[in-house]
Amino acid sequence: MSNWLESLNPEQRDAVSHTHGPLLILAGAGSGKTTVLVSRTGRLIDEGHARPERICVLTFTNKAAHELKIRVARKLGKRAGKVWAGTFHGFGLQFLKEHYKEAELPKKFGIIDGNDGLAILKDLMREHKAYENERFAMERVMQFEREQGFVPRDISAENRGYDIESRDPKTDRLRFIEVKGRVKGAVTVTVTKNEILTSLNRPKATSSPSCSLKQERPHHRLVP
Known about the structure:
There is one protein chain. This protein is of the alpha+beta class. The protein folds into two domains: 10-111, Rossmann fold, CATH 3.40.50.300; 115-222, no CATH class. It contains six helices and seven strands. It has helices at residues 10-17, 33-46, 62-76, 88-98, 114-147, 193-200; strands spanning 56-59, 84-87, 151-154, 164-167, 174-178, 187-189, 221-222. The longest helix has 34 residues, at 114-147. The chain is rod-shaped and about 100 Å long.
């Protein structure tokens, strides 16, 4: 049996010697908290006060938990391997893994750590920035259309394949402008005969459309 009180100061000896009931220890950095945990854990096992598998030691860092296991194992040998020592977060994760059903979690669940959370925030920021760029491009294009004497209307939420419907008040003909999804916010106007017919729903629309009727040829391009 090892002498777990050896080389301890009076305050540390009192903490290590305590056996039954709760014990609160307040100590600052470098005061020997890990030493107390090591000696107290070892004494409880060595003197038969507690079985190794009934002891759970929680620390703030994995480094401290690893050091505790090594130092206890030096005196207790294989018995120390049954002691659960880890961080508060690690304990919480282990607890959830063992009781995932009670927590209504899937058996294989994931925990978002700091790096994962940062990556998610960056993705959300990029998406938000892309949305802002698209809205800025939409506003620029609609302003450009107004300056040309057209009456633009945002139809991006109607899922019609284009983002802006721009009407010529003199002829009542329509232009169709695609804004979203273009590189660097570039804007391309593409008009097809079928789309003009569908939108205007008038046979005369085929006579003199306001834009080129070629499928892929751009009418104009803007870079907001």
